Amino acid sequence: MKKITFLLLLAIAFISCTADDKLKIDSSEIVGVWNWTSTDGGMAFNIHETPQSTGNEYQLILNSNYSYSLLENGNTISSGTFELSMRESQLFNRTSKFITFSGDIEEADNLVLNGMITRTDQETLTIANDFPDGIGSTFSKIE
């Protein structure tokens, strides 16, 4: 009886430990240095911003240890950590990957950083709002 009780307690302890551990989603597809190329969207698709139209260049650095830096015109304006999660998209009614930044995240005008991630190819990353008439920021990979 003692052996059965011990094995039962051991199984419960094992199950509860793995339930508490948060599984991290693989970040390898987004790790790198990304230059902001545009932000588009809004009501009636009325927002069209680029580095040329704003006079600001943004660079997003995503590291494999889930840390990030955001640079504006070569100066670091934010740094901290990011988290990837899978959840139901309100916009597409399917499970999609989302990115959320923590730390001293500094949202720049018309630059979307927290949102749904889409990839059209290996060199393009889009982070977008998950609602109709939202906006999305597109980045191109440089490293």
Automatic annotation (TrEMBL):
It comes from the Bacteria. InterPro entries: DUF6705 (IPR046551). Keywords: Signal. This is DUF6705 family protein. Residues 1-19 form the signal peptide. Residues 1-77 form the DUF6705 domain. It comes from Salinimicrobium gaetbulicola.
